[in-house]
Amino acid sequence: MRAVVQRVSRASVTVNGEVVGSINRGLMVLVGVTPGDGDADARAIGAKIAGLRIFRDSEGKMNLSLSDIGGAVLLVSQFTLYGSVRKGRRPSFVDAAISAVAEPLVDAVATALGERGLIVETGVFGADMSVDLTNDGPVTLVLESQDGRVL
User: Fold this and answer.
1) pLDDT per residue as tens digits for the range 56-75
2) Which is catalytic among the residues 6, 80, 125, 134?
3) Catalytic residue among 6, 34, 78, 122
4) pLDDT more than 70, % of the chain
5) pLDDT at 98
6) Cα Rg for the chain, rounded, in angstroms?
7) 125 assigned to active site
8) Which end of the chain is more exposed for a tag (fewer CB within 10 A), N or C?
């Protein structure tokens, strides 16, 4: 499982002209699933995201987590995180899990975050979404999970 985590001052996702998820200060998280991923990966990614200390404290150091600042998460599925452009110019998505595998695992990440007391907004799985955000910092991290461990 792969997640791109961005610290934001605000973020929203729109489907067919309607805002389906919106947050203020917090994390915008894009999540991609590959065929070997499972529930342990979803729990590991969720726990890591919840515990990341990437918000500034009173001294300006990245020392606070989402719960410390009362932040929220906007979680959006993104199969293109497993796109490969090794050959040619058109991406291949053979490393992305099929919807039947990916959707429940993206939901499991949302559940893992919610179980930690975080507010979680989401996009619509498989929809053509428009994501709008203001990156704060900017701070952007890439997380990878394999066999239930964040690498």
Assistant:
1) 999 999 999 999 999 999 99
2) 80
3) 78
4) 100
5) 96
6) 15
7) no
8) C
